[in-house]
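Archive entry: two folds, one per protein. Generate the first.
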Amino acid sequence: MDLLWKLLISNAMIAGCLFVMVLLVRRWMKNPAVLHLLLLLVLIKLITPAVWYPRIDLLTAKTKTAPNHPAIASPQGAETESTPESQAAAKSGLSSFAALRKGLRKTTTAADPTSEDIPSPGMTKQPSPMVESFTEPAWSARLTSYFAGLEWTWSSLLLLIWGTGTMVCFFVGAVRIICFQRLLKQAQPAPAELQQRARTLGTQIGLKSVPQVDLISGAISPLLWAGFSRARIILPAQLLQELNDAEVETLLLHELAHYRRGDHWVRLLELLTTGLYWWYPVVWWVRREIRVIEETCCDAWVIQAVPDKRRAYAEVLVKATGFVSEAQRIPAATGMGTQRMLEQRLTSIMCDSLKHRISRRGKFLLVTVALLLLSLAPLPGTSQAETKVAEKPNQLPSVEEILGGYRNNLQRLLPLGMTYRIMAQENMNCITRDRLILEALRNIQKADRSEIKIDGKIMSEDEYQMRVTYSYSSQEMFLDSQLTPEVVQKRLSETVVDQRYFWTDGRSFHQRRPYQLQQKNTTLEQGPVWPAENLNQHYDAIELISWSNQNQPPLRRWYGRKKNHQIPQGEIGNDLKQIHNLKTTAPLGLKQYHWAEELSEYSLDACLTKPPHRYRVVGRENRDGKALILVEYLNKPHEQSPEKRWRTRAWVDPAQGYLPLRIEWGYVDQENQLAWGLSQHAEVLQVKQVDGSFYPTRIRFQEYTTGTPKKQEQSSQTNEIKIFTKNLENLPAVPTVPGRSTTWDVLDIHPHQQIGPETLALRFPEETVYDNKIDGRTYTTGTEQPLPEDPEPPEMVHLFSQAPPLQVTEWLDGNTHQLKDFEGKVVVLLFLEDVLNYDFSGMSPEMEKYVGEIKKMLLRLHQKYADKEIIFLEIYPPGTSKVKIREFHQNRGFKTLAAIDQRQAEGGATNQKYHGIHVAPTFFIEPQGTRRLQPGNI
């Protein structure tokens, strides 16, 4: 806004100075054509954007003195305190008068730091319903809401008045043009003789084509009319009857001279500049002078063409001006001039030798002046003395200015559409951490139960069995698989973890996400979503989510990956928490989302949209050559450690919309020093200027992980590891070091982008099976009745109860086995299904790699527990071919006991007894025959 004002005022000042110079030199300049071009430069300058912006220290920038806010130690629960006015504004978001009153108050007094105390996500606040139903406001309310989001100042009010006056001027001009166009419908083409005389005269003054001559009844002045159509010469029929041939000839020459000079285009330029600068007196003065000089130039054209008809031409001017009783206001029309300048024109016609052409030297000088003035726009700068004053601590911007500037900078871009991707990369600190944890897990499994304490207590037998036999073993195998050379190399390289298209207007949103991520960019725009059948044709591999208050319910989700209509392809609901992978990561400047989603703590919006009273402006810091402002936010004390508080630090750039270029999160002690190191930090790597605002198009989020204690760096065989692993209640204080990093990168961005209502509606194709998350039923598009519910699965056994018998059709070895046959041993039930769906002889490289990982995992499992009295039993789904099982055993390189489950309902009887209708990968059964552990992947 400030830059726009400076450019407009700069153009107006240069145009005014040029006009004054023209008035000064006109006494010595005898060629009216040169004066005419100089005056045209004044108008053109007003609407020409400059390409060179030199800053001058002529105008001083006023600075507001903002008090230095000290750190405020607010009592717990202060986040919920707010005035009734702020609560009402927070609920509606539509109080434009409150925003206007607040903006005006800011120009005279310091703002109250508690005036916008709105509870933010994660803070103590009153419980509210999970879903809030409200209707979409009318257009007037939406317009009011838009202006309410702006921080009103005197400059914005003046700009509003300016724009209103411009619209009025254009409206009045349009009405006059339309009225005159209706009048011209009565005009009739002039006789062929008059048309031929006009063509002859046009050829005489160098015209290749001449405008049509029309006659009209009425007391109007002869004029050249163009408007927004082809130019025409309009002559009053009654006036022509009073003129002789010589007078008609000079009258036609006058109007043809206007056409030859292009004065009809000057009328359009006048219309544009007058509408934009209606308040500027220079514009009206220039318009008047241009009209006077135009008539003088046309007089010169006529005298030069027919010098022997000066008297006839003078008489035409007298008759034409006398024919019209009063001046007419017709936009875009070029007439014969007014009565006020008639005497001066007659004197010049009869006595002077007028010029209407410009010499080559004059043209060169005019082009040089035009290039210099049209490309120049000096901006008022700040003097060095004032810069020093502004750098004083008491001249820092207030918290309200920083928070408001950040929000306004981003919200000006709404509605906003963009495509972004997220890249993730680990480093050796992550690998070292996993190696330490792996070694600790192995030491725990070797230790006696009495040596392992949690919260100062020795684990019970059941807890020990659950943790050591299952949980720790599973973690050990997972970490072991993550530390192979191939996997480590992949973890250390940057990979794409997410890519999305995201659109929002601040109240609704629409996003798209591919199921298969690739290193190269995936095209998420596959065509329109309406008609709905396009979803099946173009978006079978792309998930679409829309949230709009126009939808009932507001959430609609399409994930039609499978064409089997018995499997739902979409869902509707009112709770986004059911979509675990949905996160709004784009900075929007919103204090809270309107679509039932909480702001992420590690985000730019959460950093600069909290209640102002907990912020404090620390001071200025120079980082990477930029003068940034350091702002701190202190949250309520830590629950388990009241002496610790959560602190957010942000270094904002006032020159780039108060964007935070660096943010740090972590707990601090009472001395405001980091207690446990940084939790995470973010850096804005790239900022793009978009439509007058600044937007962060590349952000890197750096996570922190536990480092290696110095004593452990010397030797991994010391007793430190044993202490670290066996006595879990006294974990040593380890340093935090940078770990995994993610980079949020905008691929393309489109501000003020509208989206079709059919996209937000996201209608499903006919016969689409979808889930209704509100009533928990499944429906088909086009029917109101839900589909029949699935039958109740058989009751499954609970943990720590006796393991049920195996209900199998047959064993692969041809014998019969029961659990009692393995009494005294640990039995591991493996329910395998996916591995039998692959053709091992013709697998793709990707599938062969996936199956290879499964083979390695099973082989390690068998090799590790083969000598520990552990029996592995594989249970395959009903109907599985024994040939397929033997092919799988042969492919993986070893055999185990295997059986085919007995069919029951839609699944296997044994699997349903152990875990309902879903396939459970793994169960452990202890020697006493009791099912001890929960199912899980191993």
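Generate the second and append.
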Amino acid sequence: MTHPNRLLGREKETATLTRLAARSVAGEGETAFVVGEAGVGKTALVEQMAAHAESLGMQVLCHAGQEVERQHPFAVMSACLAVDAAPTDPDRARVAEILRGEVRYGLPGAIGAADAATVEAMLGLVEELCARGPAALILDDLQWADPASLLVLRRLMASVHQLPLLIIGACRPVPRVREVDLLVHSIGVRNHTVVELTPLSPPDVSQMLAALSGGRPGPRLRRMAEGAAGNPLYLRELVDALARERAIDIRGGTAETTARCSPSLPNLIKHRLACLSDDALHALRVAAVVGDNCTLGEFGAVIGRPPHEVLGIITEAQAAGVLRDTGDRLAFRHDLIRHTLADAVTGPVRSMVHLKAAQVLAGAGTAPERVAEHLLYAAPQGEFLIAWLVESAPRLTTRSPALLLRLLDRALDIADPADPHYGDLRLHHVIAHLSCGHLAEADDEARHVLARTQDPGMECAMRWVIVQAALASDRPDVALIESRAARASARLPAIERNRFHAFSAVCLFAMGEVQQAGARAMAARRTAEDAGDPHALAYALQILAAKGFLEAPGAEALELARQAVRLPPHSIHPAQHLGLQLALANFYTELDRSQEAHHTLAAARTTTEHIGGLFSPWYHLSCALLAFNTGRWDDALADVEAGLDLAQPYAMSRPLRAIAALIALHRGQHDIAQTHLNATASTQDPGSIARFYEYLPLSASVRLDEAHNNTKDAYSQLATAFDQGIGHLPGQLILGFLAPDIVQLALAHGDTTTAHRVTTAAQRRADHSNAPNHLGDVYRCQGLVARDPHLLLEAARHYHTASRPLHEAHAYADAAELLAHIQRPAEARARLSQALEIYDSLGASRDSARALFRLRSITRSPRRAHDDARCGWDALTTTEHIVAGHVARGHSNPQIGTLMTISRRTVSTHVSNILKKLDMTSRVQLAAEVIRRHSPDDGQPTG
């Protein structure tokens, strides 16, 4: 093992980090945090480790946080990953596009939430880089990092052991930042090390003094150095100051000082700066205010000097030990030096420097967020600020809306309401509130602007903000009122009034007014088709399709959903088109058209990854439902886990947890199910979309009651929901899939009237759809009511066609029970065997046990427990075997997701599950074992 050059007094810490680097190169990643006071040597240590990592062949990605970067999201991580400029690498370019977030413009956000799409994109980029070779992510001065970057870092830490990735973060204990503390002192995180940098020991201090002064330190020099308390920066500044004053005398190999007192570190830094020429000192004070992130060209433009003069200043500063040589960017030797220089600049002058920097950066076409950082502290200059905001606000709205709001507040305070740009500032201010998730503020300000504007364009924009904010706040009734008011406005163009008319159907549907919504959508469709307006037509078709699937699921409703998706994507907002795709995928799932559902979800994946927000958990919920219904329960759980990571604060956690609870209940894992259901009980998912999946928590709650033999409560819940609905949704429409369960419970409680009524409702649904699982429900209901095993076997046949294995097994078990009752034990055992085989394939141990108990009179001997392997290669699902094969071929999680048309996050969950089942820690181990087990000629993994 090679070792980096010796760093005085840090041999133990260097050895620790060197060992972690070696393990990371071998494939099992590590995280380390270097913590210590300012000047104690953190930067020297991490820079040494960066050089060592590079010598090991690792890709080294470095960045040091700055105070100003806390103002805008992902600043630290985007700079470290080199996606903040104009990357030519396709993987980085994709992340840069998602970071800009142009497709998210105008969508309601969530308060305080980091953009999930960008988080996922950055995680995917790191995984891509690790697939190319071992990588080192080195972040200095984490105390200044923005919260979004810290979230990415936390997510990377959770899976670092799987990757050839070394993460090193350095930070001071003061100022104390809660998010950084949580990272440094993480509990239960694997491969996590904290390196505390303490002051140098007295022998190390003496050795450093000798190296700096050129002789063995004498008594007075050692006593003077005691004031440095073992701080390397302090020691260096002390000796350098003494040397400049010629206060060190070397005689007989001993270095002694003639000075009488030990100055403080700030005074020592000022002493160093006093060696600079006035010209250089003035320029460096400006540079200290501008910050480390500027290029030499930008620095020259701010101070108004030609390149040769800038070069002279830089050369003088480097010789004086103020700047480091880092190429084309300014870099102070230590942040304390920069602070000392900046503190000498008075407030008014500092404001003017920031304004000049903002103007220079804006003129050079620099990213708006960098310009905005300076404008926050710049002197008021209304004309420049307003003009720049009008041009740059759309990008800042999606990139850093909170930062934009602060600038817009300032601009609106100084702008004249008669200024032609004043209305633009108001518009951007409202949309920035919406993007930040400040829904009440967006609504209030939009109403304020609406009451005063005479401009039809501004009125239209404000009315759309009001209805969006209302719907995002789960107030569809308010959104309906405002949509009607917009349609009645004489100032709006006819096309916009028609769009609000169509949108009112969305509001009515969200309120549960299904019939009114359908009538409104039908009228809006005719108007939209006559006007050739795809925007309004999309709303109308969306509601007509959804109403059709509630009332009469079948070919007609499906064709409406398809027509909506076929609308030209460029003619409607990408988020609206994505919602139509996800709805269509759910319709396909309901009608047992699994392949078409899968293809639709695959088509929606890329857009979901770009937009994020509520669409990410909705996408994963749709994938989980498809997998659950078709018997791929471990795949469903992978999507549940992926969706839950993205669900807050965008909702969907209740239905996601309900799916996990249902699987746990069928598998006899009652504690896991109870945990999920407890979490759903304490959560209220906002938004109209989540409301349509409330049948899932109800279903899980009923199953839990049944598992506790509390069938009375189970039946009461189902019967009440069937008659009274869930929320304001009609129960007979949304609970059709539970018809056989209601019939079974009704018969058990002697309620034949309800059993017949529910069977009739199931028949109506099947008559419309002719879907195999709906037909299976009818035959099963009829078989249970008539006690006819042949009808139940017909139900099993339809469930088999539908690829609904759980329902198929239930039908076989019901048929076996009736066959046993009419004294046909051989046939009963055969059907029971079919049911048990399916239950075993699903891991549904509770259902197996229940079937065996119901039919204990015909079982000849105790049945050998099914070997439900939960560890080892036999425990891997088909999907997990495919994923393992891709890992062995060196594919990253994003690449595997593309090949298998599933999300990167779902792949990550599969990889974690595989490693857990195989008791492995890294992808390298997994790849080696796959290769050992399979020769190269055994075929290639497919997606």
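Annotation attached to the second fold: The mean pLDDT is 92. The radius of gyration is 33 Å.
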